[in-house]
Specification:
about 65% helix; mainly alpha; f41 fragment of flagellin, N-terminal domain; 8 helices; two-stranded antiparallel sheet
């Protein structure tokens, strides 16, 4: 059986092939100009889904990186505040040792020592109320300063909350970034209590100096408070190292995700350019062939 091929069917086939070739050429040109294999989900649904999942992981990693940097800044502020406070306590200890030598100090000298101790107390209060981005680093999740002073009695009150401030560094990992102000600076206004605040301790020593009382035993109290500060700063250092380690691991993961996304989305540029050139040649050949098929007929002249 002989199939009849009409001039009209040949024209339709030629135009269809030309359009298909032109569509492929446009797709290759778009890939070459954008550098991406996938410009819309319909190009490759499976790869598009993979790319979306990888981008989601990239966004999560970027957020974790911001969390880590914020946490490092919190802990750096705490480390500076505690180390500064330790230096103040070292100075206070030197003053107490000097004041304990009652045979070498007169009333005027003891008054001067008491005044300096009170100045150190105020300096310690400033360190205890250290803030980062407007939030106290020693008050937990509470708003406002960690310590406030009663204008009448002069006593300092701890206003921190038991809640802790954490930063998420991974899908199931968090790191504490604040410090327990009560453990660092104490809370009790009783200078003889185990949790005596550094403010109560220095206030009591200053009063004893003015009264000419023995302050030899207060050296041990200062050492005890300083040991608690050093214990806290050790924990801060450990948590800082944890964040730095998480930051390094996250950096490697970020680079890996970038490579994975590039493998899914990016084109092979040399191969794409070669295919584009071949498609351009094919398109030109298709144009030539179509021009031969679409010869004007007698009806075209009659029109």
């Amino acid at each position: 059986m002989i199939t009849r091929v009409t001039h009209q069917s040949t024209q339709r086939a030629a135009v269809t092939n030309l359009q298909a070739t032109q569509s492929r050429l446009a797709q290759l040109q778009e890939r070459a100009s954008s550098g991406k294999m996938i410009t819309k989900a319909s190009d490759d649904p499976a790869k598009a889904a993979d790319a979306m999942a990888l981008r989601k992981e990239q966004q999560a990693s970027a957020q974790y990186s911001r969390n880590i940097q914020d946490g490092v800044s919190w802990l750096t502020s705490i480390d500076t505040a505690i180390n500064t406070s330790v230096s103040y306590l070292n100075r206070a200890r030197d003053l107490v040792v000097r004041g304990a030598n009652s045979g070498a100090t007169n009333a005027e000298a003891r008054e001067a020592l008491a005044v300096e101790l009170e100045g150190l107390r105020e300096s310690l209060a400033a360190q205890a109320n250290t803030t980062y981005l407007g939030r106290s680093v020693f008050a937990g999740t509470a708003d406002g300063p960690a310590y406030t002073q009663d204008t009448v009695t002069g006593d300092y009150t701890y206003n921190g909350s038991p809640g802790i401030v954490e930063r998420r560094t991974g899908a199931g990992t968090t790191v504490r970034v604040d410090a327990d102000g009560a453990a660092v600076f104490g809370t009790s206004n009783d200078p003889d209590a185990p949790d005596a605040s550094v403010y109560a301790l220095l206030t009591d020593i200053a009063a004893k100096l003015r009264a000419g009382e023995d302050i030899q035993s207060d050296i041990t109290k200062i050492d005890s408070r300083k040991d608690k500060m050093l214990s806290e700063v050790t924990g801060v250092g450990a948590r800082t190292n944890q964040l730095e380690s998480a930051k390094e691991i996250l950096g490697h993961k970020t680079m890996s995700l970038k490579g994975d996304l590039s493998a899914v989305e990016d084109i092979d540029l040399p191969a794409t350019l070669i295919e584009l050139q071949m498609q351009e040649v094919a398109y030109q050949a298709a144009l030539g062939a179509t021009a031969r098929v679409l010869q004007p007929s007698l009806l075209d002249y009659l029109k």
